[in-house]
Known about the structure:
By secondary structure, this protein is an alpha+beta fold. It has 11 helices and 16 strands.
Amino acid sequence: MTDVAAGPAGPDASRILRDLKALSAIGGAAAGGVDRPAFSLAYSEAVAWLAELARRAGLRVRQDAAGNLIARLGPPDAPAVVCGSHIDSVPGGGIYDGTLGVLAGLECARALADRAAGLTKAFEVVAFVDEEGAYLSLLGSRAMAGDLDPGELAAAHGRDGRPLAAAMRQAGLDPRRVLEAARPASDIAAYVELHIEQGPVLESTPCDIGIVTDIVGLHAAELTFLGEANHAGTTPLSLRKDAFRAAAQAVTECFDLVESAFPADTRLTYGEVALAPGASNVVPGEVRLTQEIRAIRTPDIDRALAETRATAERVAALRGVGLRCEARSFDPPVAMSEDLVALIEAVAAEQGASALRMASGAGHDAQAMAKRWHSGMIFVPSAGGVSHNPAEETGPAEIERGARVLYGVVERLVSGPAT
C-alpha cells in the first residue's frame, strides 16, 4: 500500500474515527458489533445523534417522507452533489458497513463549510433508511429515486412478520407518504458513496482503493416445501412426505447446478431456514427457505432463477411434497457512471493512491441512485474480507485515504459548472 497523501486541507480522519466510535455505542451488541435495524429504537436514536452532529457542523437538516436523513450545505436552490450511505445494520453487524460513508461525507461537509457561500452546487450528506432490508431492501434510496410502488410497500414486512407500515408509524413517519420522497432529476447533479469493500479482493492486491464499475443484481425469494408431519418412529422413510429431506436435496442440487453451469460471479445463498412443527420426534411437515441469487448480468440471474426453481420443483415432486415459491424483491445490476469512474481514478492518481476497477458483489444505495443520476463508488479494504460481522474492520490509514479521495472528488463536483 502507498502512503497516505499529506495536505493541510480536506477531511480530518481522526474525527471520522471518533464519530465511528460514538455511533457504534448506539445499538451496541453485547457480543460486539451493533444491532441497529431500520425503525428500531436504536436506529431512531442514531438518526437523532447524526442530525445533531450535522447541525453543529452548520448543515441544514431535514428528514424526508421515507425517513432518509438529509443534511445540506451551500446554495438552497442549486442542484446537489450527494454523498451518502446508511447507518442501519444487520443483526450483529459491524461498525463500518454504511456508517463510514455517511460519516466521511459529513467530514467532507465540515471541510467545505468555510467555502459554502462560493459553491456552485449544494452538497448533501444522506443517511438512507433500511439499506439492509429489515423491511424492504434499499427502501430509502429507492424512494428517493422514485423506484417504489404502493404494492410492494404494502406487502413489506420484517422478519417477525411486522408490517413496514406499523414500524414506520412507531418511528413517527406516515407510511402513506413514502412515495413523496421521490426527487426530480434536476435536484441532484451526482451521487458518490464511500464504502468498505466487504470482501477480500482489495486486501489481496497492492491497490489502495477500489473503484466500482458495476453493482451486482439481487433476486430474493422464499421457498416453502409442504409435506406431511408424522411420527418419526413409526413412519418408514419410504412412506414419508418429509419436507426437510426434499428441501435439503433441492438445496444441494441447486448449489451443484450453479457451481457447474454458471459464471463465477453468480452467487446462490439459502440464509434462513425454518422447520415446522420443529420437534425432534416429528417428521417435518413444512420447511421455509430464503433464496438469494446475485450476478453482474440480469440474464444470469433470470436463468439461475428459472433453473433452480425447476430443480426444486422436480425434487419436491420426487419426494411427494408440495412447493410454493414467492418472490420477495429484485434489484437489477447497474453500472456506475463512466465519467465518475474516471474522475475517481484521476483524483486517486493525483493523491498517489493506487486504484483497482472492480465490480461490487454486495448491493448498495448507489445502485438505486444510479438508475436516475450519475453515480460512483469508492471502496476501501476490509480486513480479512470480513463484513456483516462484529469482527469487521478497516484501518485508520485506509479510512483516511478513502476519505481524502472522496473529498477530492466531491470538491471538484461542487466547484464545477452549476449545471
